[in-house]
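TICKET: design request
STATUS: open
ATTACHED STRUCTURE:
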């Protein structure tokens, strides 16, 4: 049985300018309910962020859709995600890419995300308990890099880990920005205002 709330979510996303059918299909396949606490299931499809533990929130569905659509993903891409959270965005990306590497600074969230992704039978992902500000040089280069947290300055540590023609999507000073590693150098495209929590440096030692 198709969840009416999920169908309503997809229709709202379409009405908000989300036109990538692969993305919409992934968000229809992966229920947000799996990635929020059970006492918040009634709010799972609402257009709002929700707490997931460790003082962190899962971003709103539209925010996730806007970030992901800006990636321009194809199925053979290797993706790096900064900020796994509860694993929802990782799950969406896994439906659209070849493999997703995701970095999370809270080990509690790493374990929870892995449990949820494994329960759903998703295998093309790797979550690393580490400091996302440094990226993942040992697995670079990446076709696409996406950050679920914001930066106050251009994240050079991530840009150098892009493959040729690779793309980084990140919020810089509350503006969604695309960086593309082209044959003529780094190209920057400023899109529109978007708010995300600022990245925290280092990995948590206690959570």
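STATUS: resolved
RESOLUTION: sequence designed for all positions
ATTACHED SEQUENCE:
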């Amino acid at each position: 049985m198709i969840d009416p709330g999920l169908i309503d979510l997809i229709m709202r996303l379409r009405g908000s300018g989300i036109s990538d059918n692969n993305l919409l299909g992934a968000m229809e396949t992966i229920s947000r309910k799996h990635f929020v606490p059970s006492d918040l299931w009634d709010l799972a499809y609402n257009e709002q962020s929700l707490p997931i533990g460790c003082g962190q929130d899962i971003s709103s569905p539209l925010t996730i859709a806007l970030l992901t659509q800006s990636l321009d993903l194809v199925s053979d891409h290797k993706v790096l995600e900064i900020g796994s959270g509860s694993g929802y965005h990782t799950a969406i990306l896994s439906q659209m890419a070849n493999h997703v590497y995701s970095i999370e600074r809270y080990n509690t969230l790493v374990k929870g995300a892995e449990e949820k992704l494994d329960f759903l039978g998703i295998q093309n992902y790797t979550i690393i308990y580490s400091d996302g500000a440094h990226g993942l040089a040992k697995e670079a280069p990446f076709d696409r890099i996406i950050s679920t947290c914001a930066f106050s300055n251009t994240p050079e540590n991530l840009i150098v880990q892009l493959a040729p023609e690779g793309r980084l999507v990140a919020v810089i000073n509350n503006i969604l920005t695309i960086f593309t590693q082209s044959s003529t150098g780094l190209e920057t495209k400023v899109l529109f205002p978007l708010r995300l929590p600022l990245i925290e440096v280092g990995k948590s030692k206690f959570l």
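CLOSING REMARK: The first helix runs from residue 4 to 15. The CA atoms of residues 175 and 193 lie 4 Å apart.
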